[in-house]
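Journal club prep — side note

Before the paper discussion, L.F. wants everyone to see what a predicted structure for a comparable chain looks like in token form. Sequence:
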Amino acid sequence: MKAAVVFKQPLLWFFIVGLALFVADSRLSNDRSEIIVTPALRDRLATLWTTQTGLIATESELNALVDNWVKEEVLYQEALRLGLDQGDSIVRRRLVQKLGFIAESEVAPAPELGQLEQFYQQHLADYTLPERYSLQQLYFQRLADAEHALTQINAGSAAQEFGESSMLNPSYAYRSALDLNATFGAGFSDQLASLEVDRWQGPLQSGFGFHLLFINAVHPEQVTPLEAVQQQVLLDYQRAQQINARDVYIDRLLENYSIVVETQ
């Protein structure tokens, strides 16, 4: 039989491909069966021990660390051999997270003051304090009691004579709408928009009951100067640079892939 005819036989190619896969799997299996404990690994385990305990590992402690690592590595390699990493959302998420950290790990040069100022101006809303309230409150379990107290206060009685004890403070200073909602319950701050300053008003309902409020002041939005938040701006800038580095890394990877979206 001629060589050209032989190589056209499907069974022959099936045998060749099967043999190649067997050899490849055999070599990979041999690689998995060999676990090497390098001096660098021992040093890394010793450093990790010192970081966690603040102590230098003794020879016996280091040997125990190595033994534990070997057992863990055996379980890890066996899990890979069995394909336990496939289709596991937790493993997938961890691998994606780890590669993301690698993509963000490139050390960027320290920004100049001009770069920080530009970043600060571009994200000014992040460094602007929202509208805030300074106020006093009287708490009541029943609506009727709150209404009666307000009538008496408007008639000249001292506000300190009214109100029931609760876990709430009698006064709050410089609290934003978000802060007030966190303290009194969702939507509480919406009721303050129609209130006046320097007089007792209400009752307002919260997640606790009913309240009379005396608004001492409404503090408008206030931009925090760069000098006061420069360290935070620096941290935000560095984080933005890390995210940008990761995005660039992903964009470069996408150039090597063909994305196919199948339709039903």
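L.F.'s comment for the group: The first helix runs from residue 3 to 6. Keep this in mind when we get to the figures.
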